[in-house]
Structure formats: C-alpha cells, structure tokens
Design brief:
36% of the residues lie in helices and 23% in strands. It is α+β, with helices and mostly antiparallel strands. The chain has one domain. The protein has a two-stranded antiparallel sheet. A hairpin with a 5-residue loop joins strand 1 and strand 2. Helix 1 crosses helix 2. The model has no long low-confidence stretch (mean pLDDT 91).
Length: 69
Amino acid sequence: RPELLGVPAIYPLDEGWVRVEGQTYDLFELARNLLYYGANCRVLGGVELRREMEKIVRDLAGVYHLLDR
C-alpha cells in the first residue's frame, strides 16, 4: 500500500486472522483502504485510525438508516 511507511509486520493469528502493524503518513487513505476488507478487518489501534474507522462506519450506517433499527 502506498500510504504505508516501510514494510508492515504481519503476524498470523488463530482462526485465519492476521495482525498487521505498520505506520502511515496518510490516515485518510489508509482508513478507506482498510474498509475494502469489510467485517473481515478490525482496527485495534492507533487511536487516530480507530477513531477514523469508527466515524466512517457510523456515517455509513446513518446513510443507510441502520442506526434507526
């Protein structure tokens, strides 16, 4: 991914999950690229990236009226 700085560290986990650790210079672009993975991606940190992901998902839920159900 061009928005990453350097090569990310990749750690295989249980049940087919993979932990990826890295750094970015473009939080906006990274968050949008991670959305490609849908429910198969869970952002654990850093704080700014997690907040950005939560905001995007909340905004999308509002667009599709999922928060009213």
